TrEMBL record:
One GO location term (cellular component): nucleolus
Pfam family for this entry, one: Myb_DNA-bind_6
Name of the molecule in the record: TTF1 factor
The Myb-like domain, residue ranges: 173-256
InterPro entries: Homeodomain-like_sf (IPR009057), SANT/Myb (IPR001005), TTF1-like (IPR053078)
GO biological process: termination of RNA polymerase I transcription
An example molecular function term from Gene Ontology annotations: chromatin binding
Signal peptide span: none
Source organism (scientific name): Phainopepla nitens (Phainopepla)
Amino acid sequence: MDLDTARQELEEFIPHVKNISDSSVRKMAGRDLMRFKEFKKQGIAVKFGRFTQKENKQIQKNVEEFLSLTGIDSAEKLLFTSRYPHDKDIIQRLKTEHQFCEKISEGIPRPWRLIYYRARKMFDSNNYKGRYTKEEKEKLKQYQALHGNDWKKISELMSRSNLSVAMKFSEIRSATNYGAWTKEETQKLMNAVKEVMKKKLETENPGSVLSLEQSNMNDVWIEREQLYQPLPWTEIETKVGSRYWRQCKQKWNSILTSRLTRGQQFYRGTSGLQAKINLIKRLYETKAEDASEVNWDDLSNAIGGLPRTYVQSKFYKLKVSSVPLWKKKTFS
């Protein structure tokens, strides 16, 4: 299949495929297109976002079955083959012979790459090592000075995951201020978000940039769904200068909540009780088995046009404060 045809057929399942690189499109055409078509016949849509508990169990089942089929003795060897140079050739041959890509993604209507990354996160023992010690932080700074941002190399030296070392270094290097945000810092954050969003919109939809330029930062200046797309927080952190990425993300969500609610006190007093009841009723009517299955945008529109993150956090607070032993209960 030629590249244009592959991109055209994938667009039915992945609307943003036009923004994906040619090499990734070729891989998706080989690994995903037939799977997506099979799921479509079954009336199952391709999913993105947070993995459900059911999907996590399916990944675990797929990995365990592949290990049993091939005789590879651990998920870590299967998913982090480069950590075992002496066994690397044998493992790669077994993965090719027994169609690793097809087996690992069986029963999960998502792009293969996302399933693979999720499996690596689930089975990486380096993901669950707790807080960094002072010694580890010093080592991380030394390794970064030697190897730059080669997080794969540094993660091997540190026995931590790639994401963990990258984010921890981002936190360490920042001239972090833990106090209240100043007006200057807040303005820097808003300018940084506006800048990265402008760049993103120029790439995806050039016509929408004009309204962004003409708008006032005191108003909500981008369509609501755009505001919730993933943002490059480490890039925003660099532009702000005095806060690390997690603080920037939390502050931005706080700004969104404040701006988009327009000061309306939806969850206070008698009307607040009714709003909570409406939220619970609407959630129950979705018949979702997991929080990740809820369309939070539709839900937030239905109960008053509140920001998605605000509704999610309100539900979480209700759950943990009002439902005894909630961790042991099903979502419904």
